[in-house]
Amino acid sequence: MAYLSLYRKYRSQTFGDLIGQEHVVRTLQNGITSGRIAHAYLFTGPRGTGKTSSARLLAKALCCENGPTAEPCNECHICTSITVGNCLDVMELDAASESSVENVRETIVEVANYRPAVARYRVFIIDEVHDLSAKAFDALLKTIEEPPPHLIFVLATTEFNKVPPTIRSRCQKFEFHRGSVQDILSRLQHVAQAEQVEYEPAALAAIARMSDGGYRDALTLLEQAILTANGAITTEQVYAQLGLVNEETVDELLGHLKGRDVAQVMRLLGEILRRGRDPRSILESLMHRLGDLTHAAFGVDEALDVTQAAAMREMALRIGPDELLRLRSGIAEAHGHIRDVTLPRLWLEAELVRLCSPVVPVAAPPAVVREEVRPPRSVERPAEPAVRSTPQTAPVPAEEPGTPVNNELKRARQAWASVVKELSELSKLMKPRLAATKVGNFEDGTIRVLFARKLDLDWILDSPKREAAIRDSIRKYAGEPWVVKLEVGERSAPAPVDDPVECVLEGDQLREAAKEVFQQPPPEASDGQQP
Hints:
Helix 3 (about 50-65) runs antiparallel to helix 4 (about 75-85), helix 8 (about 180-195) crosses helix 10 (about 215-230) and helix 14 (about 280-295) runs antiparallel to helix 16 (about 320-335).
């Protein structure tokens, strides 16, 4: 007999052998026992959780010579033929390779009206049903809606959301869950003992954790470990097979990260890379271990034995819950970005060094902002004295020192003077509009800026970019998000006439300035005279 892979050789042949899906088994058996047999079932869930095996078990239970029965005998001709896959009345369709409407018509629609040849029912098992084309679903819809009494559909999918609602609403839905670590470990131990393979308990536990809840994935990893082992399956061999880093090395690296020992982190990382582990595998090893330690720290660990549970709790307490969450967040962020990195080794080293570094606080605003205190709401602001300032010098009038309100207003005027100066240097069109503005008042984080002319204010508000530039600049110099109100107020004094760029303009310089201010060229002078 040809060699069978472990996941095929140890496929569940009875409902009692189907591990981790008790809710599905109980419902199916109750339906068969009570005679409430649906004409269409929809099995959905992650890969390797027993959907196709359950579909074949359901076909056995319905078509068994001693049935319908809650537990097939696996001895009659029909049960054995379904097991080997040559029963005429149980037809399996792989929608991933036979997704066209012609396949559905030839395999299902044209055969649906014929009675079964030997069995009690004709059962159609469609695997990965979400891969059927839209036309194929349309062709299947009428048959599923009103099938003959001898016809039963079992649809299996890993992507329930891709199945059309018209199909979903006509099926009984069963959710298959990922296997727990304990259930998968129990299955691995059963298979290893049946295959007479020696193993370390920790090695099978590592395979169970790395299978991500899939029984088929776990058996495939076990089979690969059996083929590569020289004697008993060891933990080190399993980690080498998966390309991951063993737990002792990962714990040592986590200890250095907690201690913020950059030199030791870089040394240990270099050793791991020299062993042939790639950066992605290192991050995955860290994520797996941090996940286990987090569960242990918060009392939700899936302990495989008492010794391992105690060791994990001790390591979790040594690092601490807060540090575990910090490291887990940082490693998860790095894992999400590694696919876009061109130099992953150097980048990973930089990321681990960053996790070693203490948290650097954000740079504080200027000294004026740090020293002053926001006024309480109960303090009344004194009458505002007249202020006249220019964007270059930004003089602030003398005020009564010591009052929080005056300090806040002074702070607002200093910030606005810096804004005017910055925007005037960036845009010559903005400069004349802001030259005659002033701060009306400042209260509860709201700054009121008064424009002397409505024309200038309208010019600012006509462009969302100009208004946004003002708000961003205020946020930059204020160090916090102030609410900005732009209004028309009392006309300010004109800027002093001591700027040669503004006052001493003639000829071409005057023409260029006019273009910038009025956004259109002035009329050309005639006879070669200057305008």
